[in-house]
Amino acid sequence: MRARNTMANANDRIIAVVLTALELEYHAVREYLTDLKVWAHTAGTLFETGTVRGADVRVALAVTGEGNQASAVVTERASAAFAPEVVLVVGVAGALHADIDLGDVVVATRIYGYHGGKEDRTGFHARPRAWDAPHHLEQHARYLTRTAWWDRLLPEYPGRPFKIHLRPVLAGEVVLDSRASPLAQLVRRHYNDAAAVEMESAGASLAARLNRSLPLLTVRGISDRADGNKAASDLTGWQSVAASRAAAFALALVVGIESAARTGTDRAAAVGPGSWAVERAEDAVGGTASGHRVQSVSAIPRPTTWQRHAFVDHDRLFGVGQLVDDVSASIISRTGHAVVSLFGEGGIGKTALAHDAVVRSTAENVFSRIAWATAAQTGGALDLIPAGGGTAYWLDVVKDLANQLNFDLGLSRALWTKHFGLRMDSLGPDERVLAVIDNIETIEDASSVIRSLHEMGVDRPHKLIVTTRWQLLPALPAVTEYRLRPLEDISAVALIRHLGAADPDLRSADERALRPILDVTDGNPFLIKLVVRHFLSSHLPLDRLLNEFRQLGGLDDERRSLAGRLRSHLYLRSLRELERRFGAESVMALMSSFCVKGKGDMFTYDELSAVSGLANSELFSKVLTGACQLSLVTAFGDSSTPGKLDRAYTIHGLLYEFTCGQSSGRREGDGS
């Protein structure tokens, strides 16, 4: 197994390196990345590292220039610098067969280095080299072509639906743009199975092979037919279309592969909507069981710009019809509050409901511009709070909104918020903006975001929708708020049957047979989806699968049930962020203090300070403030300062069990 790199820290680990030959190809990949940073190799090669939009997956990107030699050199440098899990050669290519059209995507099952050979008086004798695609990469690619969910990431483009082909690709040293030349005849004679031709993958494949067989895959969009009309095809814009499609497919593949690795399995069922789409929006509801629903790419309607940022994978909602109506009415209203908040536990369906409410609102044609941004970040909730002119992450959110709203903010990041406000002020009297900020982690973040966007002009008649796990009222009074609750049994059963429509056991099961699933998931749509999909992909008998879930600790012990484990993960992530800021010892001193009393009991500020044993009062205050901001600790009373004597502090009952049940041992999920 290859050693995984660490970069600056675990969150910066580079999963894949994407190599392109042309600037146009580079920018096509770059459009799907956020949090971009420049990384310079000692030999001068510049890489950009970034996070795939909506996924906790980081990649490195570089331009190799044209030709196999250049791509080999950069592949070697990328391998040494990042030790990635996979290298992807992404860009455009020319088609070699009539059944491959402009705009189609070709995933190389084999790379032919076709320019090797011997020339004597009897003619040319081909001596090619060939590299087969790694089996696991090819399998992930084949699965991705069947699910087709990744297609909704693409920009709209009029014309014929396109196809994905998994076939061999030629990599030579010249641009082939003729069907009648001697080289074209040689290709037809010796490499008749090749679907496309390009100039970089042979060099990259050789370098990857020499680096302990580093997995490498080539993904190419077809921009010409290699028939003498390349210039005309390029002028009509096919290079941009082909490059964008290849980039989207390649990055979706990376996210799927990493998702499979994180779940500890390489099963194909781990790829697709259950990886990128669900990880980006754990609140998505409904959907169709991966592995049982096969669609052509053209079957998915192309979304508008904001929908490509929403990242939901459901095809219908259950049990929330009236709530969607109510939220839509609040969004459309010109007289209500400018802010609409959807709150509820993780996985309850906030993102999906917000998406459907916005879709329904657009039917009324009351908004001229719509934008959707996701706030949740691995780096921690506090990174979102605008301060001192704006953090880097907050400015990325502003830029994301601006791009969708077609606002030009200029080159100076320091002026982005100001320019955003100016663009809002310049809108015509009949224009209305609808902005969505999804997955805000804390009340403090929500307050800061709402205040900042208000100052930037997002106020009546415009609308702001936020989704969060926390209730904002009464802390933020100027908000119309809706709470999402777990599904009632009748709706949960309908969702289970919908997800398992292709399986006779689930499709026809009565409520009594499905009761164990209802008990395990506690009406949480995301957990229902996980259980059903695991059942469909594992092919285990339903009773055996449910028994495995019970072995996690028993249904009566919520901390160790499946639902409890998911919630524990959310708490663990917040605890680690707090430890990163203040140290594990200080955080443990604070959190374990709550174990002195019973679940639900409260502490005054002085009581908590004394029990924690933190002699440094300033440090204690900072740790407690951070814990409140991360929603690990709940404070009641005057919020003007954490040191008020009339304030009381407690932690959620589930967090109490998580903390106090393991205070003397290793945390669940902690690798220490």
From TrEMBL:
Q: Where is the NB-ARC domain?
A: 323-383
Q: Locate the Nucleoside phosphorylase domain: which residues?
A: 17-254
Please name the GO terms that the record assigns under molecular function. adenosylhomocysteine nucleosidase activity; ADP binding; methylthioadenosine nucleosidase activity
Q: Which InterPro entries match?
A: NB-ARC, Nucleoside_phosphorylase_d, Nucleoside_phosphorylase_sf, P-loop_NTPase
Source organism's superkingdom? Answer: Bacteria
Any one GO CC term of this protein is: cytosol
Please state what the protein is called: Nucleoside phosphorylase domain-containing protein
